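Tutorial, part two.
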Amino acid sequence: MNLARSLERRLERLIEGFASKLFPGAVSAPELAQRLIREADLSVTEGPAGPVVPNVYGVRIHPDDLGSAQAPNELTGELAALIDEHVLSNGWRLEGDVHVQVVADSSMSPGAVHIAANVVKGALPRWAYLVLRATGDEISLDSNRTLIGRDVDADVRLDAEEVSRRHALIWREGPDVWIADLGSSNGSLVNGGRAAGPMLIANGDSIIFGSVETTFRMV
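Running the prediction step on this input gives:
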């Protein structure tokens, strides 16, 4: 199933599972999902590794719209997964797991929705890693957009003179994984060929950053 279809199916499940059961008022589950996606789109900022999206969302709606004091974990989990897939489909960066909290607030007008979106740093699961050929050590790739270089602020720091401060970027966009050299002094090689522009990489590919030889592995 491609990512666009997966997002569509998540919206369908929200309609089938929550629209009548938990949202008796003016705000429906699909509408709330669309508003969260729009909030994510409007909250994109530029970080060292590219676009960054908030990962923590607090939603307040009137009690009559929610129908309960607090939305169940199943609903908030579906909403969080929807945002996570939307971010992945655009190749954006998250600084931590996505969390959504939906609460009833009697100060809100019926039909109104207030969303507070924030970037909260936290641990992320490893989705890929680089194997250093010289030592066999594994370097985890946790963030969806990973900055590689010699700079102390790089996500993956390679302490070698031939590696530039901001050397390269590896990121996921939908089902694909990309690499781009960031104008480094000594370049980046993928399977022996220079990565002059953004190019696709796959499990087992050889990647050399300056003089540092690695093998890319998917989890």
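The mean pLDDT is 88. In part three we will examine how such features are distributed along the chain.
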